[in-house]
């Protein structure tokens, strides 16, 4: 197993642990274009936001944890993988600020996110709460919109 953890891959998505999610577990590799079709499926989903494991070693930890979380879920749970380019493109949409991350959704409804890695007991405690949550708009990351005022102070 240590050779899997330390074997360099040319690109993050070629890492054996990330490939296992796609091949062995059958999780789809999602893109901004394919995400809407994935979200249109019924039920809850966990979106795995992947970052380069050379820079964010916890990415590989979460790659090992994710199938166990799916198996331990109190409700049916689909998983999808967003490789680094897709993850970076979609991170602002879900308010992701720390890598790696799991975003829980029901359709287009945001249920919550777990950023970084956690103790197994924390996953088991938090995941049922997230999956039972009422959906809300995702906490978008970006520049807040403000009213512009003219030099005279009148709102424009």
From TrEMBL:
- Kindly give the Pfam families that the UniProt entry links to this protein: HyaE
Q: Per its UniProt record, what InterPro entries does this chain match? A: NiFe-hyd_mat_HyaE, Thioredoxin-like_sf
Q: Which family does it belong to?
A: Belongs to the HupG/HyaE family.
In Swiss-Prot or TrEMBL terms, this protein is called Hydrogenase-1 operon protein HyaE
């Amino acid at each position: 197993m240590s050779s899997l953890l330390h074997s360099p891959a040319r690109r993050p998505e070629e890492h054996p642990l990330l490939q296992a999610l796609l091949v062995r577990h059958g999780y789809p590799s999602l893109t901004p274009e394919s995400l809407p079709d994935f979200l249109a499926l019924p039920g809850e989903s966990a979106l795995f936001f992947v970052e380069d494991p050379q820079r964010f070693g916890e990415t590989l930890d979460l790659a090992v944890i994710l199938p166990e979380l799916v198996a331990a879920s109190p409700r049916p749970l689909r998983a999808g993988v967003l490789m680094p380019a897709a993850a970076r493109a979609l991170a602002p949409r879900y308010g992701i600020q720390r890598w790696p991350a799991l975003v829980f959704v029901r359709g287009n409804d945001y249920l919550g996110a777990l950023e970084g890695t956690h103790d197994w007991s924390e996953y088991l405690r938090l995941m049922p709460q997230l999956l039972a949550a009422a959906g809300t708009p995702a906490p978008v990351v970006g520049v807040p919109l403000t009213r512009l005022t003219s030099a005279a102070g009148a709102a424009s």
